[in-house]
Design brief:
This protein is of the alpha+beta class and 183 residues long. It has one domain. It has helices at 3-11, 21-24, 75-92, 149-158, 160-168, and strands at residues 13-18, 29-35, 40-46, 53-54, 60-69, 101-103, 116-120, 131-134, 137-147. Strands 1, 2, 3, 4, 5, 6, 7, 8 and 9 form a 9-stranded mixed β-sheet that branches. The longest helix is centred in the middle third of the chain and has 18 residues, at 75-92.
């Protein structure tokens, strides 16, 4: 099973790819998948796992990036954000660590009052989705969850562990950009 088949198994049918020249130079694409029954859209990288990324401790990892949402009209903003995050990873060779926050660029997702995206594992999915095994390497799927300023402040004050507990108590609310604030 290749990575696209892995994605389709967990995120629905491949709908389209977005050829962004900067990324294509590195053999990376951004793609869209859709689960027709739930109208859930996923925007993912495809090919990032061919690039070794490094954690702060010096260890390396292979990653693919993911956004999931139900607001189809926000798709272009998620594609733009995915491009920026992927470009950051390729430019710095730095891996995304669970619990990290990345400030949203001005103008992106502002109609929802989000301030950042939070790095986590795709815990709404089957556990087999989190790691893709390919030949002699493992690929970690990284899910970015948009968060509100109050949630960002909670993380700064209390750390990622209590925030993760709040996330795990949700039941698919994080896929709705109109969701209520957790804090």
């Amino acid at each position: 099973m290749n990575y696209l088949e892995h994605l389709e198994k967990h995120c629905g049918t491949f709908v389209s790819g977005f050829d962004i020249p900067d990324l294509l130079e590195d053999a990376v694409q951004i793609i869209e998948l859709e689960e027709e029954s739930s109208k859930l859209t996923s925007i993912s990288t495809l090919g990032l796992h061919w690039h070794a990324l490094q954690f702060e401790d010096g260890s390396t990892v292979r990653q693919e990036l993911l956004f999931r949402f139900i607001q189809q009209h926000a798709k272009e903003e998620f594609i733009e954000l995915m491009w920026q995050l992927t470009d950051h990873a390729l430019g710095t060779h730095r891996a995304f660590e669970l619990g990290e926050l990345y400030k949203l660029p001005e103008g992106l997702l502002e109609q929802y009052s989000f301030s950042s995206v939070y790095v986590t594992a795709p815990f709404y999915s089957d556990e087999s989705f989190i790691t893709y095994e390919h030949e002699d390497q493992s690929v970690l799927v990284v899910w970015f969850v948009p968060i509100h300023p109050s949630e960002e402040q909670f993380i700064e004050e209390h750390g990622t562990e209590p925030f993760d507990e709040l996330l795990y108590e949700t039941d698919y609310e994080l896929l709705d950009m109109n969701r209520k604030k957790l804090i």
